[in-house]
Amino acid sequence: MLRAAFTNEPSADFSDPSVRGAMQAALAKVGSELGREYPLIVGGERRETGTWITSTNPGNLDQVVGKVARASKDDALDAIAAAQDAFKEWRRMPMVGRASVLLRMAAIVRRRRFELAAWMVYELDKPWDEAEGEVAEAVDFLEWYAAHAVKLTERVDLAHLPNEATDYFYQPIGVGIVIPPWNFPCAILTGMTMAPIAVGNTVVLKPATNTPVIGYKMVEIMIEAGVPAGVVNFVPGSGSEIGDLLVEDPRTRFVCFTGSKDVGVHIFETAAKVQKGQRWLKRVTAEMGGKDAIVVDSSANLDDAIEGIVTSAFGFSGQKCSACSRVIVLADVYDQIVDGVVARTKEVVSVGSGLAGEASMGAVVDKNQFDSIENYIEVGKKEAKLVYQGETPDANGYYIPPTIFADAAANSRIACEEVFGPVLAIVKVDSFDEAIEVANDSEYGLTGSVYSGSRANLERARDEFEVGNLYLNRKSTGAMMGVHPFAGIKLSGTNSKAGGPDYLLNFVEAKAVGEKL
Ligand code: TAP
């Protein structure tokens, strides 16, 4: 039933006219469905609440993508109760049965790949290839977790006493609160929700307020694939309004969060407090921000390095946790890298509506992000040398051009703080020692790349570069499930490694049984 060997879902090739045609047809279909209203889902019941979260296209602010019911505190508490109730049955479902639901979901997502990608083009102004690639990643998460859930049923080989039989196995833990970010609202939301469900837990899913419509579409598919009522509950609402309530509730057994450092740290602290009536310590997986660096030394292939920097910095407008936002370059190749990165950015990075499927960068997600990035650009102008700023379309959206600062001091704000936009800071250093020191002088430790022709330097980076995902002579973005298990260290997260062999262990507890014979 399950594939013996996992293979990544291939992405669509938009240079093929028939593939472009399929995407255009999907955009037209989804375009005719914009502006609809979507309910909460609590214990299988569709609820309207009278208040709405309105999702708009950040590349066309007049376009309402949809309106999703906003959960009240009572709805959130009801969702926990429904999940607690559903846990009694779902925990007993054989692992292979639960895994089959994930495989069925993967098949549905695969069949609807262009339609789901189109929703993200409207809801996030995501470029076609990024949106379709994300749908393929959702398929990967589902098939990987399905296979690994079944693998988890294999009994562990323990040492035995002569007169005792021993056993060691994993059991689900209970109700989890899943809080995903807006930047991968299909793949990350799917992985974070369906991994705990695969191993027998039940979930209250609070999607990001910026992307509730694609969240609803994914939950509909979960239900169509066979996730029973109450096993997944959908409660959109602002994190500040219902987030603490969900995390604090004594019935909550675990929290699975991906988002910013500040919110992740807050959730970690909140969940640590044992509430009245609570009978466990809550587990928290918190995957957070980054200030990802690419290091280039004098022996590197500079063309490869330039290509990797530009792709990593400006893909999806720099709104990836793995996006390169600082480049650390050895002095003797510094000018070549600065000039090369500027030239390549001019050549390949274009800004425009995701809808047309032409531009490589769309709008940024909302006004808060827009203002924050603009503010960082002003900070950068004071702290460093602006060497390039591209053009933006004359459109009613949150468009920010690719922006490159050189001569940034290693400890400047533009080189140290997460911007989460298309802004790159380049720092000059005198030695590889200094490069590693600067790269590590950060509270974050998510991704990093090193371009070098020196085996000794690559091996030093392997050992000393403080990141969860290190890339040698390649870009820092584009982690693939099963190939590059993904999560950070330091204040980038709890290192839960999505798409890795250990991820499901975050949502189970082990039991050891000894029986006297
Ligand atoms: P956040 O603003 O932190 O929001 C993430 C989620 O947390 C949203 O669903 C948000 O809800 C919710 N939230 C906010 N306050 C909350 C509270 N008090 N209690 C519970 N939930 C709360 O992040 P974002 O802007 O969506 O995403 C961008 C960030 O995510 C960046 O820092 C990026 O680096 C990081 N990220 C990391 C990774 C990995 S794997 N490390 C992957 C993707 C993104 P609302 O939307 O309602 O505010």
Overall number of structural domains: 2
CATH superfamily caption of the largest domain:
Aldehyde Dehydrogenase, Chain A, domain 1
On the 0 to 100 scale, the average pLDDT is: 97
Proportion of residues in helical segments: 25-40%
**CATH level 1 name of the largest domain:** Alpha Beta
| Count of DSSP-assigned helices | 15
CATH T-level topology of the largest domain: Aldehyde Dehydrogenase, Chain A, domain 1
How much of the sequence lies in strands comes to 15-25%
Strand order of the largest sheet: 14-15-16-13-12-18-19
Computed CA radius of gyration, to the nearest angstrom: 23 Å
Shape: globular
Strand tally, please?
A: 21
End-to-end C-alpha gap: 36 Å
Low-pLDDT ranges: none
Structural class: alpha/beta
What ligands can be seen in this structure?
A: 7-thionicotinamide-adenine-dinucleotide phosphate
Largest sheet: 7 strands, mixed
CATH architecture of the largest domain: 3-Layer(aba) Sandwich
